[in-house]
Amino acid sequence: MTTSHPGIHPRHGLDEVIHAPVRFSIVATLAAADKAEFGFVRDTVEVSDSVLSRQVGTLEKAGYVAVTKGYVGKRPRTWLALTPDGRAAFAAHCQALRAIAETAADR
Questions:
Q1: What is the pTM of this model?
Q2: What pairs with residue 78 in β-bridges?
Q3: Are strands 36-37 and 75-82 parallel, antiparallel or unpaired?
Q4: Please, what's the b/e burial string for 67-95 (b: 16 or more CB within 10 A of its CB; e: otherwise)?
Q5: Which CATH code is given to the segment(s) 13-105?
């Protein structure tokens, strides 16, 4: 018989903001670069502009993503980048996922 210990299971290390599949995909994409253009992230994650905008808004409110607007020539562009807090949260979230997988494999 196993005893439950509140707060010990690695799932407690998951970040609820990042855990949603689309947000996780956005953060994973941004973790691989210093910054990425909105359209690149949209196409990589395979979502619409509106879905990406809404999810980026959630990540920005959490302090995980910085949004920068500018121009390339005369065309407006939006760039997305993980903040230091976003990078730390993503690393911790990934570590929690690995710990959950390892815990399951050890049983």
A1: 0.87
A2: 69
A3: antiparallel
A4: eeeeeeeeeeebbbebbeebeebbeebbe
A5: 1.10.10.10
Is 17:11 a contact under the CB 8 Å cutoff?
no
Q: Rounded to whole angstroms, how far apart are CA atoms 28 and 87?
A: 9
Distances (CA, A) of 57 to 17, 46, 52, 64, 67: 11, 17, 8, 10, 9
CA–CA separation, 70 vs 43, rounded Å? 20
d(C-alpha 59, C-alpha 36), whole Å: 15
Matching residue, tokens 């690149």: 40
26-71 tens-digit pLDDT: 999 999 999 999 999 999 999 999 999 999 999 999 999 999 999 9
Copy the structure tokens of residue 57.
């808004």
